[in-house]
Amino acid sequence: MEESRLCQWTVIRSVLAILQWWGFNVTVIIMNKWIFQKMDFKFPLTVSCIHFICSAIGAYMVIKVLKLKPLIVVDPEDRWRRIFPMSFVFCINIVLGNVSLRYIPVSFMQTIKSFTPATTVILQWLVWSKHFDMRIWASLIPIVGGILLTSITELSFNMFGFCAALFGCLATSTKTILAESLLHGYKFDSINTVYYMAPFATMILAVPALLLEGPGVVAWLQTGPPLLSSFCIIFGSGVLAFCLNFSIFYVIHSTTAVTFNVAGNLKVAVAVTCSWLIFRNPISMMNAVGCAITLIGCTFYGYVRHMLSQQTPGTPRTPRTPRKSMEFVPLVNEKLEDKV
Description:
Layout: H1 2-37, H2 44-65, H3 76-103, H4 106-113, H5 116-126, H6 134-153, H7 159-182, H8 190-223, H9 227-254, H10 257-279, H11 285-309
């Protein structure tokens, strides 16, 4: 009886953790799209910089003030030699995501981001000469096919937004691959990742945001909607972006790798549905089919990777290639290799 209750509580805790993760993730995406589209605040660099600032403050509070997570100590030399290059790629990744969100619908952007498994495998194969099991290559076919079908049938297609989302996938893959070598020996969780990388990302992005978008932000402040509500929404999205990372920490410890992979793909479906209900962007039947094929392909890819990782010692294994990582995720973590 006690064991049965413990099992039930474990399931309930896992479901609550996943729902919390979904809630934060979908809310951040919707709020960012609302900022760009409804509030007409078309400054993705500024929004990204605000997110970095909120996340840096939040990580400091969690680790240094509340002491909810232990600090992973990094040598000062390694901060510049290892973490700074990672922060630069990390910054590009987040900025490209927000840029794409400004120009294309959430549904299209989320579908393109699901292309990350393919870009990760292809980059490792081309640049690092890694070889993969044929089952890995086969699992990429529905992902690529779904992306092509979605792109061809997208009614709100924008080339600039499409390229930003696609290069964002490349940046995500590059960041994850570089983490294997640059962060070797450090096992970061989501909060420590933000603690070290968000300040660097803020430093990198502050000057470009000020020079490129400063005058536009000033003009928007003079002609835009009420300042108090606008600031609450913009900074609120930054706070929720940090809360998203904190929720990931609980999901990691409450689910298995397979559950995390499936939940991640279902989260994309939830985000697409919610964005359509709010923004009513046109979605054709073939476009929805392409999105579904992509998500099924991502789930199949995660399943194949999991099965290959369970092979007995001595059996040839495929290199460990992360699927993707959402805004502000851990860089070195077994379960999060399936996810961003």
